[in-house]
Amino acid sequence: MDSAGLPIFLFALIALAVPVGMIGLGALIGPHRATAVKRMPYESGMDPIHDARRRFDVRFHLMAIAFLVFDVELLFLYPWAVASRHPEGIDRILQVSQGLGERGWVLGGVLVFLALVAAGLVYEWRRGVLRWR
Amino acid sequence: MPTSLDMLFRMTPEILLIVGAVWIIVGNAFAPQRAGWWVMALATVAMAGWALAQQGMPVVPAPSTGGESVHVGSADADSVVVAGLAIHDELAQAIRWFAIVLAFLLVVMASRAGAESLFGEQLGSILLILAGIMIAASATNLVLLFLGLELVSIPTYILLFLGRANRQSLEATAKYFLLSILASAVMLYGFSFLYGSTGSMDLSRISANVREPASPLGAGGIWTMGMVLVLLGLSFKLGSFPAHFYAPDVYEGTTSVNAALLAVAPKVAGIVALVRLFLMNSMEVHPFLWHMFLLLALATMTIGNVCALWQNNIRRLLAYSSIAHAGYMLIGLAVALAMWKTSTGLQGASATLFYLVVYAIAVLGTFAGLAYLASARDEIQDVEQLAGMGRSYPVVAGALGLLMFSLSGIPPLAGFWGKLGLFASAVEAAGVSAAGVRSPWFLVLVVGGALNAAIAAAYYLRIVRTLFFRSGTQQLAPEGGSGARNVAVFAALLTLAVGILPGPLLVATRNATCGLNRDRAPLMVTAAPVSSGHQDSIVTRP
Predict the structure, then answer these.
(1) What is the DSSP string of B187-220?
(2) In B310-413, which residue ranges form alpha helices assigned H by DSSP?
(3) Other CB atoms closer than 10 Å to residue A5's CB: what's the count?
(4) pLDDT band for position B235 (cuts 50, 70, 90)
(5) Cα dihedral B315, B321, B322, B325 in deg (nearest 10)
(6) Which B residues 16-45 touch A at CB under 8 Å?
(7) Nearest to A123 among B7, B29, B538 (CB)
(8) Per-residue model confidence (pLDDT) at position B20
(9) Under a CB-based contact definition with an 8 Å cutoff, are residues B396 and B372 in contact?
(10) CA B371 – CA B380 distance, rounded (Å)
(11) Domain ranges of chain A
(12) Which residue among B217, B427, B510, B533 is least packed, with the fewest CB closer than 10 Å?
């Protein structure tokens, strides 16, 4: 096998092993108590087939906002990851504009960003957003 | 050549404010209490002020060598520090200092605002808003400018929601939220036109590209369109004519503490953004800009003052009065735009800044006094509720009366000097033909402004009359906390002091604007090497 293909192969292996392992372990050692809610298509309690004008539980909106925050975080990380390793990317811009030859600032910047998002997560956990009441 | 470390050092006050705000918001979710986090917020502001003091103070009053003459281009270029996207010139430092003072007053004033379990959010939002003002004041890039302005807007939504839990408060929040997003979108749309017509996000490069007469896109439609849209978006922040209509409803619906913040913070950010975008960005090409500002100033003043005359709700009245004051500030900017690169133009710009400071302090004190007089159940709603306060609470009522006199521009107080400076610059602009723009329209502006000041006196004096010459029908129990009372008294004393000795503040605002005449061309070098040659190599071509 070509050494360049090894990481991809390992990645594919792990990507296969994690979901299979999770589902398999759950099926093997998890408790099986099938209630009416659990047998619905969505465990959230929403009936997928109903009138279009039915009211939507406001708790879903909180979840959606929390999801959105992390979705946007991920979206920010992609261009950062691409640009930070590119020879002409962010590092190059920083070097030219500030006369620096280090990579540290790029990593530091994104760590600050992650820390702020993590603080937001701690906040919403503490405020009970993640609790389904 | 500034390094990253230098940039970080220059941004320390903002970083401290933001870190402190996050710490307070998250910390209050773990340990909800008032006193501790209040002290923590004050300590954060003090630390930010200390960090700002480490950077030198370009706004100290200069030794009076030149008498009354304005030193055109006298500031040495070495004192200007450009760090990437931000510039810390005299204007930026002056506004940052002012933001620190405002942060201190607002935190003191909010000592009892909102619910205790959400007090951290209240304080943290205030700190974030003031950090936003500081960022907007030092931005030389459209992206950073937008970031600063949004950092002013977004915590404001939270603050409005944290007001009293009733229908009016929710309505005010929703109204402000939707309209503010609309204004931001309009402004961003304008930014996209600026970028499209000049090919840069950097303000100095935008102005350099527009100034080139050979530029095919220069003064043409796209750039003009962009500037008009940006002005429309910023007029929401200012509460000036085309986008002023939200102010009365929102002020009426929210608490006095939040109304103080709404009347001050977006206005400071909006004025400094206008100065950065319009005064520092491209002058010679566009006479239409000062025509626009002149008409907006006239319309804003008149609408604000005339509508304020028949208001019974005190916060509605003050909302219309804040609209009118935005109109007065636009007078100075119109003069500065018309008389660019002359001492008259600088006078107009510095008069605007002076007026901004005086207005902000006075209006902050007014709302602080109202917040103090409010009971635990409800804010003061009608002007009539103030009746008899002169006898029951003479200190706060005296402070309110003094601030009303200052807002209407009665001579021994600071507001008089503000109006005098603005009108004097406009009179001078009407007579001087230095820049070839001599225009009788500035006389119309002065006459309109003077008439408006007379109209405004009517409703300010009505409040004073209600305070002191009416007997109270109902007894109020002031429960706004001693912090609000102290801010009201402090603001009144400051207004009186500036009114008696306007010299230091006049010199400070003049120094703050002296950088406006500096040629912007040398500042372009900072970002120039990056975007010129490497664009092609980033994109991989077949």
Answers:
(1) HHHHHHHHHHHHS-SBHHHHHHHHH-TT-SSSSS
(2) 314-338, 343-373, 389-392, 394-408
(3) 10
(4) very high
(5) -170
(6) 22, 25-26, 29-30
(7) B29
(8) 93
(9) yes
(10) 8
(11) 55-126
(12) B533
Residues on chain B touching A123 (C-beta within 8 angstroms): 25-26, 29
Q: What is the DSSP letter of B86?
A: E
- Residues pairing with B81 in the sheet: B88
* B232 touches B190 (CB < 8 A): yes
- Give me the DSSP letters along B258-279: HHHHHHHHHHHHHHHHHIIIII
A110 contacts: CB under 8 Å, gap ≥ 6? A77, A80, A84
The stretches of B438-481 forming alpha helices (DSSP H) are 441-469
A132: helix, strand or coil: coil
- Residues contacting residue B479 through CB under 8 Å, at least 6 positions apart: B112, B374, B375, B376
What is the phi/psi pair of residue B164, to 5°? -65, 145
Tokens 């404010």 belong to residue: B17
User: Which helix (H) or strand (E) covers residue A10, if one does?
Assistant: helix A6-29
Q: Tell me B88's DSSP state.
A: E
Distance CA B12, CA B72 (A): 31
The reply to whether residue A98 touches residue B30, judged by beta carbons under 8 angstroms, is: no
CA distances from A85 to A78, A82, B241, B483 (A): 11, 6, 49, 52
A94 to chain B, any CB pair closer than 8 A? The answer is yes
Burial class (CB in 10 A: 0-12, 13-18, 19+), B393: buried
Position B65 scores a pLDDT of: 34
Q: Identify the residue whose tokens are 């055109």.
A: B72
Q: How many CB atoms lie within 10 A of CB A110?
A: 16
State which amino acid sits at residue B128: L
Does the pTM surpass 0.90? The reply is no
CB-based contact B4 A100, cutoff 8 Å: yes
Backbone CA torsion sign across B266, B268, B269, B270: positive
**Position of tokens 């979710």?**
B29
CB B468 within 8 A of CB B397: yes
First to last CA, chain A: 53
